[in-house]
Amino acid sequence: MLDISFGEFVLIGVVALVVLGPERLPAVARTVGALVARAQRFVATMKADIQHQANLQGLDSIRQDLQDAAHSFRGQLESEVQQVRDALDHHSAEARNLAEQAAEPFHEAERTIHGGIVPEDAAPATEAASTAESAAPEPADAPPPRDENQLDLFDDMPPRSSAAPQTQTPPQAHQ
């Protein structure tokens, strides 16, 4: 506070007593005390406001830094996502091209075998149809699927029956 010693306070008190008199001195002392207390509160409030403003400026700079970092991170993340999407599009197009190239010899062989006419049972099936066909059980009486690319050497043979195979008994000699 002020560099005033106790002796100096006593001297000021004596001078105030002589000048003001004993009747008015207590009222003046209360007023001076209230003014000093008010001044101390004002100084404390000003210090707190200055400290608060300094903290707000620090927080504002921190908030701004965090927002800049968030925007930077978001931009990097969006660019990475876009690169992944582009790569996926490129690879899916490449996979479609490879699938078409791989299927071309089969289509060419089919056209060669059937003379350009595609029979109904040899028409290319979609994935959904092939999945449905593979999921459906085949009836026991149905003949095995026929491969169109195999030679038909045994067309004149009777169809197989689903009954138990019969064993032939050798002819017996007549007695």
Description:
The structure is a single chain. Helices cover 65% and strands 0% of the residues. It is built from 3 helices and no strands.
Short structural description:
By secondary structure, the chain is mostly helical. The protein has helices at 6-20, 25-114, 127-135.
Number of discrete helical segments: 3
Structural class designation: mainly alpha
User: What's the total number of strands?
Assistant: 0
Give the percentage of residues in beta strands.
under 5%
Order of helical and strand elements: HHH
Mean pLDDT: 78
Comma- or semicolon-separated keywords:
175 residues, mainly alpha
Provide the fold topology:
Layout (H helix, E strand, L loop, with lengths): L5 H15 L4 H90 L12 H9 L40
